[in-house]
Structures are given as C-alpha cells and as structure tokens.
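Hi R.,

Here's the chain you asked about this morning:
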Amino acid sequence: MNWFSWIQSAMAESTPASASPNPLTTMAPMLIIFGIFYFLVLRPQSKKQKDHATFLKDIKKGDMVVTNGGIIGLVKNLSEKIVTLEIDNGVCLKVLRGQIAEAANTLKEEKA
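And here is the predicted structure, written out as tokens:
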C-alpha cells in the first residue's frame, strides 16, 4: 500500500459521503467580511455624506468656503442651487451649491 492510497482511505473514512455542510458554517465568513466592510467603509461614508449635506443646507451669506476646484470665496448670494462667491474685491463667481467642499472660515490670507 503506497502513501497516496493510505491518505485517500483515511480521508474517505473520516468524512461520510452523505453529510452536507451546515449552511451557517459556510456563510459565516461571508457575513463576517460584510460586517467588517460595513463598519469600516459604508457607515463612515454615509455619515460623511450626511454631514456634508447638512453643511450645504446651513451655508449663509458671509461664510467663507472652498469649492471642489480649490477656489476660496466669500458667500455673497444664495439660491436653492447656485451660490455666488466673491473671490476678490468686486469679482464674483457663480457655482453650484453641490460643488462647495468645505468651510474656509479658519483660513487666513497670506501677504507676500
């Protein structure tokens, strides 16, 4: 009797052919991976989106904001979808409200 046939016979004796695996045992790793993915990726992302939507709703005249393109400006006028930013004395720019990335009230202009 060679080594391979001995392993085959030992494996055949240890696992019955008619036994089916428990569905919970086979699904457990997938459920654990989904749980980890939810708590590390999906939940923080949805919280960030909710915070940003609240920020966009609460913008008011006089706030200093940064757009997604990196333009810093002072909010001069607001409508439901469009925000008018003053980026320099007398220079205004209209941007979509959704393109505002964050508040820039803490930024200070550097003098050259």
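One quick note: Residues 23-57 form the longest helix (35 residues).

Cheers,
M.
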